[in-house]
Amino acid sequence: VCHTGVTKIDSDENLRAISNPNKEGDVTRDLLVQPPYGTMSAMMVQRRLAEKVDGFDEQLTLFEDNDFNIRVSLYTTFCTVEDPLVKKHINESKHVSNNLKKMKVDASYLIEKHQQMAERMGNSVDSKMFVRIEHSIGRSAADQGHYLEAQKSFVKILTKNPTYFPGYLWLLLVIGGPLTFRTAQINKRLVVRSIALAKQATI
């Protein structure tokens, strides 16, 4: 399996970010505990491997790429091509993760599906997997302006893992509602776009 870098473009054709995959070899643990690895449009996988894991899980509308990567990683190693060979257009108003209710259902299903494997790995992998997936729910809720739902997610995270320090920062941001969260979001996008432009200049 090989993932390439991705250039992310908004609906106005403005550069939003350039992401570069950086995990190689045996990545199963990383896929369980870290944010989703790349995008399926930037993934190259042998047909026999896709067939071996029976393709995508049709019960998932969200997290299906993460689930597919986890299952494939059990049978092969991963490699990366850092160059952004794929261009992805982002339309936030039509993003599938805007369905918060469905996202919660799929998140519960994904956690249950991989819970035993995460527990067998030890080192609190199951707890870290929960934190990673719940964080994505909280972040999506905040992006949509559902600040109370976002607060609930980050409280769950900190109850599960009090040492997850980013959770405290996110909780403070969403408690302040649009005043704190939107301001931080705008500033972050400016920084990310500046980094992306700098990367693009070196390509």
Give an overview in words.
- A hairpin with a 4-residue loop joins strand 1 and strand 2 (15-19).
- Strands 1, 2, 3 and 4 form a four-stranded mixed beta sheet that branches.
- This protein is 56% helix and 14% strand.
- With 203 residues, it is of the alpha+beta class.
- The chain is globular and about 50 Å long.
- Structural class label: alpha+beta
Radius of gyration in whole Å, from Cα? 17 Å
Q: Spans with pLDDT under 50 lasting ≥5 residues? A: none
Question: Secondary-structure element sequence?
Answer: EEHEHHEHHHHH
DSSP strand content: 5-15%
The number of helical runs is 8
**What is the count of β-strands?**
4
Overall shape: it is globular
Largest sheet: 4 strands, mixed
The overall average pLDDT, rounded, is 87
Calculate the terminal CA-CA distance, rounded to whole Å.
24 Å
Helix percentage: 55-70%
Keywords summarizing the entry:
single chain; about 200 residues; alpha+beta; 4-stranded mixed β-sheet; 8 helices; about 15% strand
